[in-house]
Amino acid sequence: QVQLVESGGGLVQAGGSLRLSCVASGIVFSRNDMGWYRQAPGKQRELVASSTISRITNYADSVKGRFTISRDNAKNTVYLQMDSLKPEDTAVYSCNAKHVLFSTVYWGQGTQVTVSS
User: Fold this and answer.
1) Strands 10-13 and 111-116
2) What is d(CA 2, CA 58) in angstroms, rounded to the nearest whole number?
3) How many angstroms separate the CA atoms of 115 and 75, rounded?
4) Does residue 88 contact residue 63 with C-beta atoms inside 8 Å?
5) Going by C-beta distance under 8 Å and a sequence separation of 6 or more, which residues neighbour residue 58?
6) Cα angle vertex 36, ends 34, 37, to 5°?
7) CA dist 15 to 11, 29, 61, 77, 106, Å?
8) pLDDT in tens, 31-43
9) pLDDT, tens digit, for every residue of 82-108?
């Protein structure tokens, strides 16, 4: 059974930091591109950051220079370090795994991030 379990969300003041973690089980982690997405109320889900199996990273323009994605294949975990948080970063953050050969996609349940002004 495949599971992606996020943690690390919470309430933080503007300018603060949070570190999200997503632990995967039931997949060959090293064969999956990993991504963090977010969805704010009334808005479409958007890609925040991604890391390929070769550790090539990509960021949404709105978070470049503030967020950092990293992965630890030994721990089957992908992280999202979020610094200089803004109220507009408030959303449910979910991680995503996509197998590089089979294109199978899995999602976590999400973790709430709330940034107060």
Assistant:
1) parallel
2) 25
3) 28
4) no
5) 47, 49, 50
6) 130
7) 12, 32, 18, 25, 31
8) 999 999 999 999 9
9) 999 999 999 999 999 999 998 899 999
